């Protein structure tokens, strides 16, 4: 409540400021360019990535383009292949980032309620009109569950505004991509868009071949009173998964005998670590891990202008996703699966309906926008398990979740448009059910015991209040307060046991996780003098019951965490030929209280081995034998990141671009005690030259031109055992890579 009064106090100060002839604040890019995300959220730090900026970075993936802006960190398991294994981390959530940010396409959620992540390749880049980034939990009133760190909305063009395009590109490691986009205009108001994309690559890593296909059919009708679209997406990809690499244990006198097969120094190799029964130096070439995704999505939307002051928006979508994943066990060899191998077949179907109305009116002389909406979502999930693609299934999980929400988001222009006050609230409830069963006649599951069926109801709310105020023609100040929430995803619940580490037994409460909540305050400044523009903000966020996903053990709710930081984005036109833009982020994400029980395993335990005890701070030992984690850093969050891009116009329509990015070091996953060696910081330099003429557009360049060795994800054993301390599972990313791209518009 004290933060609410702080906002009102700040607002009373701004009212006393004298004004000149400044322009009215519009949160949207222009007065007629409406977006559900960016309208009505005054006080929030919002970035709009324009169509021209996207074209300038066309050789980067969508996550890479988004991550050049402040407050966004990008984590990859693989490089430059359809964004597979990519996670956008808004506001520093580390391990749980994937489910603490909402990704949208024209206001429609692309996130599923599992850990599968978002498939960015479903969106043809040349069909994108702009990308909107909102930092923090303000968007939770509009989009609900999971928008704690923020939201990203990808807005596409009307068919009649989309050019035909043939695009071919190639890069190192036998990577090829072909894109074809064909608009068929029926008249100046309607048309069809046909799009196809093929992508194949040997990738930087050995035994990780990739092939992906994406198809889109869109119909669009648009006039001054009515906008209708329907999209049909068919997207699939298949990839071998090369697994992690290791650095040797720091205890060189007693290292684990499986490290020799897959050292980080041999980062491209793809040997599996085999079995602990192998002798030092022996390697086992086993069946490669692999995954296959197939998604078919149908979505439709109507934007209807009821009258000059009222609009109605209605959206429908259905998404069917199938995922098949094979993970080889310790002693598995090609064509000889064992009970240690696992083959999972997941099916996820999601139906979504959204209805919203916006009404513009005047309260006195103040222009006001009142928005009210409802969201309905239903998801059915199934998982079947065996030991190979051809073996009989013996493990089964069925789950469903139905959610319902009502929300209102409103804004009022004050003082002749010199200030905007926005406020919103959301109520959301969901029903969740899960049931597990085993066929014990299948040898792999002969001794498995199903957990009791589980069901629960979840009730959550989100609020925001924000203020934007023009100080003068160059400066605008903004402030906001927001509360957001996240409910447990299906994968997190399904891997939750009553006990902390061992396989789930049929005793106690299973599938139980508490809902995650957060509150946040942010203060910022926008500056623009025509030649130089910048947006900066400072923020503080507190989360309770943050959900931690541990794929091999037991999921849990974490102790309270505080995040505070600074975001800066800027653009500077040095002269007519040279332009510079960049971003800077600082984030301090740490536990504010809590302790870990001392033990040998993961989950809620702190390690109790001699090596770990030697490195842990003895001053943190509590009298009850637990270990105090207050003040310790959240793993997988870099404290400092920045990005600088320089564009130089060599000649008419020929541009040279140099980009430099820096990511600070960070603690590895599973290291809540902050005692393991960190993921090293790194700099990346990319350079490109692009031009266009009547024959098309081309670009050539080098990514990671200094051949830097780096990775953005690593996980350590939570036991920090004496023989493996410092040995971490790492996923090395692409070294120097040369690319060429040609595009012809028609």
Can you characterise this structure?
The protein has 746 residues and is mainly beta. The protein has one domain: Beta Barrel (Maltoporin, Chain A). Helix content is 5%, strand content 50%. The protein is built from 6 helices and 37 strands. The protein has a 22-stranded antiparallel β-barrel. It has a 5-stranded mixed β-sheet with strand order 1-6-7-4-5. The longest helix has 14 residues, at 2-15.
Notable features of this structure?
22-stranded antiparallel barrel, 5% helix, 37 strands, 746 residues, single chain, 6 helices, mainly beta, disordered N terminus, Maltoporin, Chain A
Secondary-structure map:
Elements (H helix, E strand, L loop, with lengths): L1 H14 L30 E5 H6 L5 H5 L5 E5 L9 E5 L10 E5 L2 E2 L18 E8 L4 H4 L6 E7 L8 E7 L3 E11 L4 E12 L8 E13 L3 E16 L3 E2 L42 E19 L2 E18 L14 E22 L2 E21 L8 E20 L4 E20 L15 E17 L4 E12 L3 H5 L21 E13 L3 E13 L2 E2 L7 E2 L3 E13 L4 E14 L3 E5 L5 E3 L2 H6 L11 E2 L11 E12 L2 E10 L18 E12 L2 E8 L10 E3 L11 E3 L6 E9 L1
Parallel strand pairs: 4-7, 28-29
Antiparallel strand pairs: 1-6, 2-3, 4-5, 6-7, 8-9, 8-37, 9-10, 10-11, 11-12, 12-14, 13-36, 14-15, 15-16, 16-17, 17-18, 18-19, 19-20, 20-21, 21-22, 22-23, 23-26, 24-25, 26-27, 27-31, 28-30, 31-32, 32-33, 33-34, 34-37, 35-36
Ends apart, CA distance between termini: 58 Å
DSSP helix count?
6
pLDDT < 50 runs, ≥5 residues: 1-38
Q: What's the CATH architecture?
A: Beta Barrel
CATH class membership: Mainly Beta
Query: Approximately how much helix is present in the residues?
Result: under 10%
Strand segment tally = 37
CATH superfamily: TonB-dependent receptor, beta-barrel domain
Name the beta content range.
over 45%
- Overall outline: globular
Number of domains: 1
Indicate the structural class: mainly beta
Major sheet description: 22 strands, antiparallel, barrel
The whole-angstrom Rg is 26 Å
Q: Which fold name fills CATH's third level, the topology?
A: Maltoporin, Chain A
């Amino acid at each position: 409540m004290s933060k609410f009064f702080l906002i009102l106090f700040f607002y009373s100060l701004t009212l006393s400021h004298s004004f000149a002839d400044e322009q009215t604040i519009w949160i949207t890019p222009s007065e007629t360019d409406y977006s559900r995300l960016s309208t009505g959220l005054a006080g929030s730090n919002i970035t709009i990535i324009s169509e021209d900026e996207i074209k300038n970075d066309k050789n980067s993936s969508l996550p890479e383009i988004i991550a050049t802006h402040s407050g966004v960190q990008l984590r990859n398991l693989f490089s430059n292949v359809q964004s597979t294994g990519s996670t956008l981390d808004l506001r520093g959530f580390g391990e749980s980032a994937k489910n603490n940010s909402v990704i949208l396409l024209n206001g429609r959620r692309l996130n599923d309620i599992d850990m599968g992540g978002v498939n960015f390749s479903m969106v043809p880049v040349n069909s994108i009109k702009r990308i909107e980034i909102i930092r923090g939990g303000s968007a939770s009133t509009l989009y609900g569950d999971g928008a704690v760190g923020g939201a990203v909305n990808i807005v596409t063009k009307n068919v009649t505004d989309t050019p035909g395009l043939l695009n071919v590109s190639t890069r190192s490691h036998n990577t090829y991509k072909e894109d074809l986009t064909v608009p068929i205009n029926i008249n100046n108001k309607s048309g069809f868009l046909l799009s196809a994309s093929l992508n194949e690559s040997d990738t930087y890593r050995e035994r990780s071949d990739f092939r992906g296909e994406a198809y889109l059919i869109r119909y669009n009708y648009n006039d001054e009173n009515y906008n209708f679209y329907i999209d049909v997406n068919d997207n699939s990809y298949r990839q071998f998964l090369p697994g992690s690499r290791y650095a040797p244990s720091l205890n060189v006198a007693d290292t684990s005998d499986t490290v020799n097969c897959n050292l980080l120094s041999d980062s491209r190799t793809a040997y599996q670590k085999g079995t602990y029964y192998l002798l030092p130096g022996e390697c086992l070439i086993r069946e490669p891990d692999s995954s296959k995704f197939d998604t078919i999505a149908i979505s439709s939307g109507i934007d209807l202008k009821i009258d000059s002051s009222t609009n109605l928006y209605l959206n429908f979508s259905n998404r069917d996703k199938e995922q098949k994943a094979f993970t080889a066990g310790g002693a598995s060899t090609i064509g000889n699966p064992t009970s240690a191998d696992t083959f999972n077949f997941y099916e996820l179907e999601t139906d979504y309906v959204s209805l919203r109305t916006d009404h513009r009116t005047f309260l006195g002389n103040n222009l006001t926008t009142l928005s009210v909406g409802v969201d309905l979502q239903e998801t059915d999930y199934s998982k079947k398990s065996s030991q190979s693609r051809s073996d009989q299934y013996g493990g089964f999980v069925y789950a469903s979740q139905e959610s319902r929400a009502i929300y209102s988001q409103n804004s009022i222009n004050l003082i002749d448009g010199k200030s905007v006050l926005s406020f919103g609230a959301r109520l959301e409830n969901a029903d969740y059910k899960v049931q597990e069963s085993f066929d014990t006649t299948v040898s792999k599951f002969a001794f498995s015991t199903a957990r009791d069926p589980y069901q629960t109801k979840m009730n959550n709310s989100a609020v925001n209040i924000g203020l934007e105020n023009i100080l003068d023609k160059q400066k605008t100040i903004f402030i906001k307060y927001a509360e957001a929430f996240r409910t447990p995803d299906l994968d997190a619940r399904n891997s939750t046991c009553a006990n902390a580490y061992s396989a789930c037994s049929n005793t106690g409460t299973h599938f139980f996780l508490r809902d995650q909540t957060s509150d946040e305050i942010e203060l910022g400044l926008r500056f623009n003098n025509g030649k130089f523009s910048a947006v900066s903000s400072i923020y503080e966020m507190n989360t309770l019951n943050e959900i931690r996903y541990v794929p091999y053990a037991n999921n849990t709710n974490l102790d309270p965490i505080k995040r505070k930081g600074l975001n800066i984005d800027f653009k500077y036109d040095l002269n007519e030929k040279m332009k510079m833009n960049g971003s800077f982020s600082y984030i301090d994400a740490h536990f504010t209280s809590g302790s870990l029980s001392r033990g040998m395993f993961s989950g809620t335990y702190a390690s109790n081995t001699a090596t770990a005890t030697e490195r842990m701070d003895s001053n943190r030992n509590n009298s009850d034998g637990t270990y105090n984690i207050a003040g310790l850093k959240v793993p997988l969050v870099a404290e400092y990141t920045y990005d600088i891009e320089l564009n130089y116009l060599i000649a008419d329509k020929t541009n040279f671009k140099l980009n430099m990015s820096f990511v600070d070091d960070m603690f590895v996953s599973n290291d809540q005690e902050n005692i393991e060696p960190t993921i090293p910081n790194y700099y990346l330099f990319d350079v490109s030259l692009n031009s266009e003429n009547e024959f098309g557009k081309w670009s050539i360049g080098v990514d990671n031109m200094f051949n830097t060795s780096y990775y953005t994800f690593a996980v350590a054993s939570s036991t920090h055992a004496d023989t493996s301390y410092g040995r971490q599972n790492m996923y090395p990313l692409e070294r120097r890579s040369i690319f060429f791209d040609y595009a012809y518009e028609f």
